[in-house]
Specification:
about 260 residues, Serine/threonine protein phosphatase, Kinase-like_dom_sf, alpha+beta, about 10% strand, globular, single chain, Phosphorylase Kinase, domain 1, 3-stranded antiparallel beta sheet
C-alpha cells in the first residue's frame, strides 16, 4: 500500500502502471474536460436534425466521470463480463486491477508473422461485442486497446462513454459496431476479415441492433464523398479509417437488408 500511495502522490500520467508487493494495478487520473463548445454544438445539431446517433455522452464533472465508470464496471461485471476490480477510489483517481494484455498488444507482433492469427483477434473482438450487445449492454468506444485477453478469457476496459443514456440502446449498439469497424476495416490484413467480423457480430447481436445499423448507415454514407475529397489533399488515418469502415458496412448492410 505504501508504494501505491507514493505513486498516487508522485505520478502525473493520466494512466499509469504501478507494481505493488502482491500485484500490478493501474492508476487512472481524471481531469476536467477541455473546451466543450464542440461537444455542445454536436449535441445541439444532433437534436435539431433528429440524429441521435451523433449525440455525445452527457458532459460530467470529475466526480461524475468517476461515478459513471465505476457504475459501468459494476454493470458489466454483474452481467458476467470480465472487468477490472476497483482497488481504490479517490476524488480524482481510480486504481484498477490489472487484467492482462490488451488485444492491440496481442495483435502487434502478429501482423507480420501470422496474418491469420492477427485478423482472428479482430473477428473475436466483433464476436465479443455482439455478445455484449445481446446482454443488453454497449461499450461506447470499442477499440482493440480497450479489450483484454487473459488466459483465453475476453474482458473490457475504459467505460467512459454511455451512449445509451442519450439514444436508444439499439442505436448505441449499432454505433458501437461502426466504431469497432474503424479498426477492423483498416487494420485487417486479409481481405475476407471484415466479412468474417461482421458475420461474427451479427450471429451474436440482437436483431434490433442489426436493424439500427441499417438505419444509421445512410448518415455516414452521406459524408463519404466529402471524406474522399479531403483525403486527396490531406492524408490522415482518421479519414482513411472512416472511409474503410463506412464503405464496407454500407455494402454489408445493403446485402443483408
Amino acid at each position: 500500500m505504501t508504494s501505491l500511495l507514493a505513486a498516487l502522490a508522485a505520478g502525473r500520467e493520466r494512466v499509469e502502471r504501478c507494481e505493488l508487493k502482491d500485484r500490478m494495478v493501474w492508476i487512472k487520473r481524471y481531469r476536467r474536460q477541455g473546451p466543450r463548445l464542440w461537444l455542445r454544438t454536436q449535441a445541439f445539431v444532433a437534436r435539431i436534425c433528429g440524429l441521435p446517433v451523433l449525440l455525445p455522452s452527457p458532459l460530467l464533472d470529475i466526480e461524475g466521470m468517476i461515478e459513471r465508470e465505476v457504475r459501468q464496471i459494476a454493470t458489466f461485471s454483474a452481467a458476467g463480463f470480465m472487468t477490472p476490480e476497483v482497488v481504490y477510489r479517490g476524488p480524482k483517481v481510480l486504481v484498477l486491477s490489472h487484467l492482462g494484455l490488451p488485444v492491440s498488444k496481442h495483435m502487434g507482433p502478429l501482423r507480420n508473422s501470422d496474418a491469420a492469427a492477427h485478423d482472428q483477434l479482430l473477428v473475436r473482438c466483433a464476436a465479443e461485442l455482439g455478445r455484449l450487445h445481446r446482454a443488453g449492454l454497449c461499450h461506447g468506444r470499442p477499440h482493440p486497446r480497450d479489450f483484454i485477453i487473459d488466459n483465453g478469457e475476453f474482458g473490457f476496459l475504459d467505460f467512459e462513454e454511455v451512449p445509451a443514456s442519450v439514444m436508444p440502446l439499439a442505436t448505441a449498439q449499432a454505433r458501437d459496431l461502426w466504431l469497432l469497424f474503424l479498426q477492423v476495416a483498416s487494420r485487417a490484413v486479409q481481405p475476407e476479415t471484415p466479412a468474417a467480423a461482421f458475420a461474427a457480430w451479427r450471429r451474436a447481436a440482437p436483431a434490433e441492433a442489426s436493424r439500427a445499423l441499417t438505419e444509421i448507415m445512410p448518415l455516414f454514407i452521406r459524408f463519404l464523398p466529402l471524406a474522399r475529397f479531403v483525403l486527396r489533399f490531406r492524408k490522415g488515418n482518421d479519414i482513411i479509417r472512416f472511409i474503410a469502415a463506412t464503405d464496407y458496412l454500407a455494402g454489408a448492410t445493403r446485402s443483408h437488408s
